[in-house]
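subagent[fold] <- orchestrator: predict structure for attached chain, return tokens only, no commentary.
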Amino acid sequence: MRVIEGTPREIVEYEHLAGAGAETTSTEDNPASPDDGTEPARETAAPDGSASLSPEDHVALMKFIYGRAGKNDVRTFLTERFVMRLLDEEDVVVAFGRSSKTFDGLADYLMIRDDGPQRYGAVAYLRPSNGGMTVRLTPDDIERLGEENNPYIQYRNVALTDPYKINCPLADEDALNLAHELVRAALDIVRNE
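subagent[fold] -> orchestrator:
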């Protein structure tokens, strides 16, 4: 894992100088939904599956999930399973947010981003503390997916400019499966923009 800090222009220049195979991470995620005072931090990418996570990254990820999920075994299990499944099946980056308001300097959410060359910010935010997953989709996207009447989907009352209009809490295995499909749909949309 490599963390590169800088403006988007500096990161693009770095990519150009380092070559096409360079791993980059952006510090300009500008999360639309998380609390103020947070900023993106470490990223963990596993484009070839979670088996390619370094032991340090895997431990950091599990420590974050277990530390933030509290003593709710079901929520911890579902959050861990969801993240590992995404890392196994999708070309994503999982990023920890930073916050000056917490004891360890980390925010209370994970950002899930496309690992492609274009970064549009996170496609989803996952909060292990409550199993909440907010995804970058609109009600129209949900209708196109045929899920408008799904009881696991919650519509957020947010500003029209906020692209994160859908919640899908990881309540059980069915919700986890739906959340995975929603993230996949958001990835497809971002990749085709």
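orchestrator: received. Logging for downstream: The longest helix spans residues 173-192. The two ends are 27 Å apart (CA to CA).
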